[in-house]
Automatic annotation (TrEMBL):
Protein name: Arginine--tRNA ligase
Keyword Ligase set for record: yes
Enzyme Commission number: 6.1.1.19
GO terms, molecular function: arginine-tRNA ligase activity; ATP binding
Keyword ATP-binding (UniProt): yes
NCBIfam families, per database record: argS
Species of origin: Donghicola eburneus
Cellular component GO terms, alphabetical: cytoplasm
Gene3D superfamilies: Arginyl tRNA synthetase N-terminal domain (3.30.1360.70), HUPs (3.40.50.620), Isoleucyl-tRNA Synthetase, Domain 1 (1.10.730.10)
Subunit structure: Monomer.
Enzyme class name: ligase
Location (main, coarse): cytoplasm
Domain Arginyl tRNA synthetase N-terminal: 5-94
Length: 581
C-alpha cells in the first residue's frame, strides 16, 4: 500500500476526466505529474504539481487548470480538501480514515510492508569491498562493506534481483609483495631474524600465516631463491588473506554471493576477448597520448601505446590498455571483468569504490557503455574516508606500517549493529567521523540508540499489555477499532508511516541507503514525541486503564511503527532491539 501512488492515480484519473470533458486537450504527457509531501506540513498532507507542468502544453494558465482540477479531486471521498496555492500548486488534505487504514495495511504486510516492484526483477550486480587480499579489512573498507550491503538489501526490497559480488584483486604486483612478506614470516618461524624493507607488509597478522606455511612445507623453502617458492607462497598467502577477509565480513554480517578472482582473467583469453570486442567496434588503436596538465597519471607513457577510445563515451582522455612493452595495464583486466558482468546478463552494474578511485569513474563508465552498446548502465559510488576518534584523539591508519585499525577492532568495541548504522548516517560521498564515545551514548543525539530505543519502547508496551491482561497479538490488533486513532499526534505518526513505501522507492532509484537511516530517525522521533505527550495527556498513552478496546487500537499504532522500524533496520542489516539497558 502506497498512499502517494494511490492519490497520484486519483489525480491522473481526474485529469483524464478533464480531457474527456474538453477542459484539457488530448495527447498531454502526464509523466512529470507528481504527488508528494508539501515542503511545509501546515499546507496539507500532499501536494501535486499537475497544473504547473501541464500548463504550457495545454496552452492554459496554471491556476485555471488547478481550479478545475480541484473540483474533480474533492469529489473523491479520500480527499477532504484541495486548495490552489501560489501560481498553481494544489495542496491536498486526506480524510482521517485514510491514515487510520494504514494500520491494517502494515499489520497485514508485516516487515514486507513497503516492498516495491520498482525493480521488476531486473538483474543488478553490486560489487563492493573488493579489497586487495593483502591483509584483514580496515575501517575504510568497513564503510564500503556496509554501504554496499545495505544498498543490495535496499534494491532487493525494491524488487530487483540482486547479486552481491567481491572482486579479488589477486592478479597484480601487490600479491607478490604479500608473498614476499609471508616468506619473511616463514623464515622467522624457522628462527631466522628478518627485516621488513620498504614495500613489504610488516603486520602481525602475517605471523600466523608464516607459521602455517612452515607447518605445510617444512623447511623446503628456507634459503631458496624466489623463483622456487613465489608461486606457491603467493597462492597460499592469498587464500589465507581471503579467509581473514571472509571472517571480517561475517563479523559485520556481510555475505557475498560471488567471489570473483582477477587472476582467473589471465591466461584464459578473457582479457583478449574483451579487448577484441572493443577492437571490432573500432575503439582500440595505437597512438601516443598528449602529456596531461599537472600531475602525471600512473598509466601515462610518452610513447606509442594501445589505447581505448574512451573519449567517445564521455571520458576526458583515451586510456591505455596495453603498455609499450606489451604488458596489460591495470585497466585491461578491469575491462574484461566488467565485460564478463555484461555477458552474465546483468541489467545494471553498481561498483562501490573508495574515495581514491575518483579518477576511475569516467573510464569505467565509458568501457561498460562501449561493451554493452549503451544497454547496461553502471553507477559508481565512492565512499569517503572514515575518521576514528576516541577519548578526543583521532586514530591514524597506516597499512604499510602494520598499525592500521582493523574492521574487527571497531566491531569488537561497539558491535556490528552500531557499526553498520553509524556508517549509514552520512551520504556515502560525505566524510564520516566515527566517535567511539558518541556512538555508545544513550541520547537523542545518537541516532543508533534513538531508533533502537523506539523499537524497544514498543516491545515494552506489548509486555505491559500482557501483564495487564490485554490481548495484543497481531490478529487482535488488526481487528481493533482504528478510528479511535484520531488525535493529531497519532495521525502525524501515521502520516510518517505512510511515507515509508515512497521513501523506499526514492532511495532505491538514487542508490542511497542512507535515506533509510534518516527516515528511521524521523519515525522514531515521532513515536517518542507521542510517548512524551502521553506523560501529560493520559488519553494518548498506549495502554488505557480499564479500556481494552481503546488500548488495542493505540497498541496497534505502536506495533505498526515497530514493524516499519524493523523493516528499515533489516535493510540496513541491523537487528531491532527488544530492550535496552
Amino acid at each position: 500500500m502506497n498512499l502517494f501512488t494511490d492519490i497520484h492515480a486519483v489525480v491522473l484519473a481526474a485529469l483524464g476526466q478533464m480531457q474527456a470533458e474538453g477542459a484539457l486537450p488530448e495527447g498531454l504527457d502526464f509523466a512529470n505529474v507528481t504527488v508528494e509531501p508539501p515542503r511545509d506540513p501546515l499546507h496539507g498532507d500532499m501536494a501535486t504539481n499537475a497544473a504547473m507542468v501541464l500548463a504550457k502544453a495545454a496552452k492554459a494558465k496554471p491556476r485555471d487548470i488547478a481550479e478545475k482540477l480541484v473540483e474533480k479531486l474533492t469529489a473523491d471521498d479520500r480527499i477532504t480538501s484541495a486548495e490552489v496555492a501560489g501560481p498553481g500548486f494544489i495542496n491536498l488534505r486526506l480524510a482521517p480514515a485514510v491514515w487510520q487504514g494504514l494500520v491494517a495495511a502494515v499489520l497485514n504486510g508485516g516487515t514486507k510492508f513497503g516492498r516495491s516492484n520498482l525493480g521488476a526483477g531486473k538483474k543488478v550486480n553490486v560489487e563492493y569491498v573488493s579489497a586487495n587480499p593483502t591483509g584483514p579489512l580496515h575501517v575504510g573498507h568497513t564503510r564500503g562493506a556496509v554501504f554496499g550491503d545495505a544498498l543490495a538489501s535496499l534494491l532487493d526490497f525494491a524488487g530487483y534481483n540482486v547479486t552481491r559480488e567481491y572482486y579479488i584483486n589477486d592478479g597484480g604486483a601487490q600479491v607478490d609483495v604479500l608473498a614476499r612478506s609471508v616468506y619473511l614470516r616463514y623464515l622467522e618461524a624457522h628462527g631466522q631474524e628478518v627485516a621488513f624493507e620498504d614495500g613489504t607488509y610488516p603486520g602481525e597478522y602475517l605471523i600466523e600465516v608464516g607459521a602455517n606455511l612452515k607447518d605445510k612445507v617444512g623447511d623446503a623453502f628456507v634459503d631458496q631463491p624466489e623463483d622456487v617458492w613465489l608461486t606457491e607462497v603467493r597462492e597460499f598467502a592469498t587464500e589465507a588473506m581471503m579467509d581473514l577477509i571472509r571472517e571480517d565480513l561475517k563479523m559485520l554480517g556481510v555475505e557475498m554471493d560471488v567471489f570473483y578472482s582477477e587472476k582467473s582473467l589471465y591466461g584464459t583469453g578473457r582479457i583478449e576477448g574483451a579487448i577484441q570486442d572493443l577492437t571490432d567496434k573500432g575503439l582500440i588503436y595505437r597512438g601516443t597520448l598528449e602529456p596531461p596538465k599537472g600531475k602525471l597519471p600512473e598509466d601515462w607513457e610518452p610513447r606509442e601505446q594501445t589505447l581505448f577510445k574512451s573519449t567517445d563515451y564521455g571520458d576526458d582522455v583515451d586510456r591505455p590498455i596495453k603498455k609499450s612493452d606489451g604488458a596489460w595495464t591495470y585497466f585491461a583486466p578491469d575491462i574484461a571483468y566488467h565485460y564478463d558482468k555484461v555477458q552474465r546478463g546483468f541489467d545494471l552494474l553498481i561498483d562501490v569504490f573508495g574515495a581514491d578511485h575518483g579518477g576511475y569513474v569516467k573510464r569505467m563508465k565509458a568501457a561498460v557503455s562501449a561493451l554493452s552498446g549503451g544497454k547496461v548502465p553502471v553507477d559508481i559510488k565512492l565512499c569517503q574516508l572514515v575518521k576514528l576518534f576516541k577519548n578526543g584523539e583521532p586514530f591514524k591508519m597506516s597499512k604499510r606500517a602494520g598499525t592500521f585499525i582493523m574492521l574487527r577492532d571497531v566491531v569488537e568495541q561497539v558491535g556490528p549493529d552500531v557499526t553498520r548504522f553509524v556508517m549509514l548516517t552520512r551520504k556515502n560521498d560525505a566524510p564520516l567521523d566515527f566517535d567511539f564515545d558518541k556512538v555508545l551514548e544513550q541520547s537523542k543525539d545518537n541516532p543508533v540508540f534513538y531508533v533502537q530505543y523506539a523499537h524497544a519502547r514498543v516491545a515494552s508496551v506489548l509486555r505491559k499489555a500482557a501483564e495487564a491482561g490485554i490481548e495484543a497479538d497481531d490478529a487482535t490488533l488488526l481487528a481493533a477499532d482504528h478510528t479511535k486513532l484520531d488525535h493529531e499526534a497519532e495521525l502525524n505518526l501515521l502520516k510518517k508511516i505512510a511515507e515509508w513505501p515512497r521513501l523506499v522507492e526514492i532511495a532505491a532509484r538514487t542508490n542511497e541507503p542512507h535515506r533509510i537511516a534518516f527516515y528511521l530517525y524521523e519515525l522514531a522521533s515521532d513515536l517518542h514525541g507521542l510517548w512524551n505527550r502521553g506523560n501529560e495527556n493520559t488519553s494518548l498513552r498506549f495502554i488505557q486503564d480499564d479500556d481494552s478496546a481503546t488500548s488495542q487500537a493505540k497498541i496497534a499504532l505502536a506495533r505498526s511503527t515497530a514493524v516499519v522500524i524493523a523493516a528499515g533496520l533489516g535493510i540496513l542489516g541491523v537487528t531491532p532491539a527488544e530492550e535496552l539497558r
